[in-house]
Design goal:
Strand order of the largest sheet: 1-2
Radius of gyration: 18 Å
Largest sheet: 2 strands, antiparallel
Length: 89
C-alpha cells in the first residue's frame, strides 16, 4: 500500500489541474506562453499520475480497470472481474 501522503498529493494535483484547465486552454489559444509559465507546475495535466485505486501503486496500472497488474491478477483469479479468466492451452 502506498503512503497516504502520495494519495493526498495526487488528489491535490487533480484539483489544481481542474482549477486551471480553462485558463490554460485560453492561454494556449492566445499563444501567451509567458503567462502559461507563470502558472503552478501542478496545473499541467501531464503531472497527474494514474494510481491503483486499491493499493496506490503507480506502476503497472491498467487504465481500463483502474487497478495495478498485481491487483488485477488477484481479482481475475477470484472471478471478481466479469469476462476475465485465466487462459490455458
Amino acid at each position: 500500500m502506498a503512503r497516504k501522503s502520495l494519495f493526498a498529493r495526487e488528489v491535490k494535483r487533480k484539483k489544481t489541474v481542474a482549477k486551471y484547465a480553462k485558463l490554460r486552454e485560453e492561454l494556449k489559444k492566445k499563444g501567451d506562453y509567458e503567462a502559461l509559465q507563470q502558472l503552478p507546475r501542478d496545473a499541467s495535466p501531464i503531472r497527474v499520475r494514474n494510481r491503483c485505486m486499491l493499493t496506490g501503486r503507480s506502476r503497472g496500472y491498467y487504465r481500463k480497470f483502474g487497478v495495478s497488474r498485481l491487483v488485477f491478477r488477484e481479482m481475475a483469479l477470484r472471478g471478481e472481474i466479469p469476462g476475465i479468466k485465466k487462459s490455458s492451452w
